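During the second year of the project, the team shifted from modelling isolated chains to modelling whole assemblies. The rationale, set out in the original proposal, was that interfaces cannot be judged from single-chain predictions alone. As a representative example for this report, we include one of the complexes processed in the last quarter. Its constituent sequences, exactly as entered into the pipeline, are reproduced here:
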Amino acid sequence: MTNALTTEPENAVAVVQRVESFLDARLKRTELPANLVEAIRYAVLGGGKMLRPQLAIRSCEAAGGDVEDVIGPAAALELIHAFSLVHDDLPAMDDDELRRGRPTLHIHAGEAMAILAGDAMMSLAFEIICECNFDEPRRASVVMELAAGTTAMIGGQVYDTLGGFPDGLSETDRLKLIHRNKTGALIRAACRMGGICAGANDEVMESLTQYGEASGLMFQVVDDLLDVTQSAEHIGKATGKDAEAGKLTFPGVLGIDGSRAEVERCEKRAIEALAPLGPPAGPLRELCGYMARRTK
Amino acid sequence: MTNALTTEPENAVAVVQRVESFLDARLKRTELPANLVEAIRYAVLGGGKMLRPQLAIRSCEAAGGDVEDVIGPAAALELIHAFSLVHDDLPAMDDDELRRGRPTLHIHAGEAMAILAGDAMMSLAFEIICECNFDEPRRASVVMELAAGTTAMIGGQVYDTLGGFPDGLSETDRLKLIHRNKTGALIRAACRMGGICAGANDEVMESLTQYGEASGLMFQVVDDLLDVTQSAEHIGKATGKDAEAGKLTFPGVLGIDGSRAEVERCEKRAIEALAPLGPPAGPLRELCGYMARRTK
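Output from the structure prediction step:
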């Protein structure tokens, strides 16, 4: 079931497998209905890139923490991300039938199950954090990051699909507002959660936050570029849909070359933010390079 | 907007108004899209009975705590309950157009907004708990109760609408499994959260837990009885739908008289569980009486 970042950084596959094993074991010991557990497994263990878990784990390492401490929060992040995809794919939302080259959950298990499985994935994410071994102040901080990141992510999806913008924003500002929330908030939260699990001080937290914000924006610009430049077969989901749906996209607003320049600027900012962290931030730098140059 | 438990116990209206004011103020200071905030307001400040907040607040009082400490968790409980109603009403689920005498959220604001507003209500609930003033161990315990109660509630909805039962359960056992999760888990969590906020010891927590389990089951039996004995006009939502949908209900399995006897048994158990708590549990006893004899 692994479809990890297979090029960079080293050990990415091992990281993904640890998070998958954690989720597998956690789902084995729920008392939830068997059909619900099967649906959650389908959605969260379906070969995602597990980018957010990797960011959390690499951020924890960069801050001098023990990877063991962040596996639970990393799994929680993937549950939140996977829940958002399940709900975004619903007929009343993006109405997508294909995700990672497989039928979306509502095609596989029905719409009611997709709604409920998404809901359960969110609450399960918070349960998992509460079950972590680290001390309670840290646990409460991690919950706060995850909750705020999730709420912002949902707000971003509303902006993207239903509007509700503050008055007077330019097209570029609206686009950035969408994605600072829709994609950026949870990526930022992933980096910060890694830092919190490591007991990072304010300065380190600030580095990780800056890194998370820059790489989150970059990730979305790359995503939009892939949507216009790649075939559906290659990236495993429908492409060109953003433009068809009349959505604001980075290539649409900045052009393809302008978007590529934005990717470069973001990557530079992200790498610079890590300077104070020195060698332990190596894997986080590599991950940023992968995010800038990924092809799916 | 108040449609509180106007008969019993005394001060119920005041309690409800405090939770409503809290939610109103909290929603004013979010940075979420304006249309999303409006949808959340519509769903959570729409004149619900606020039973779960009342249970949390009365449980906190019964355990000798300060009501001030439990207002945030009480508001979070109502957000979770309201989110579950919004999603349960969706076309792919119960397909209800009427709730508390008003159009359901997906009729009022569209299906996509109803899905997203429900999602945001859940994550906002966890944010609210993290913002509470009480110490972090208490905060982490409250998050755990709320998360586990929410996951179980969603599992109960799956049992009720999509099956997934363990093998070999009788009809009565299946019915109890549905409602121990669907309604019971969050009511139990409400009582326990009140206790945690009061810093209750194990013995007090056990009393509140027993009370919550008995009154939660009772609440659902009464709900099923109202569904077959009351008109839609009176209770503000469609009635008789459970039987039409072929759902397992208490009157269907135990008969009307058998269900009424079950209500009496539950009430007795709930009241007995409170015995060790003495006079401070007075309002919690009254609330149980209201739950047993409510007519809407």
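Chain A touches chain B through 54 residues (CB under 8 Å). The first strand of chain A starts at residue 98 and ends at 99.
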